[in-house]
Amino acid sequence: MRELRNVIESPDVQQQVQQKLRKLAEVEREHIIATLERLSWKVRGKDGAAIALGLPPTTLESRMKKLEIRRPVRRA
Hints:
Blueprint: H1 2-9, H2 11-38, H3 49-53, H4 57-66
């Protein structure tokens, strides 16, 4: 039991868990961006990304802010 506790509490295991969590955020970010690009960056409305992702628009906007997702600026 002590050996298991040492493995679970070791910095290596904790670091691996943190890396996996970061990767999940990266996957979520990529998925949201891909959906937004496919829908011309429309967030709200019946043909918006929020509905496509199964989220309320406010939740999608909150996640976009958290994940630092912004519509790219088009240059003329």
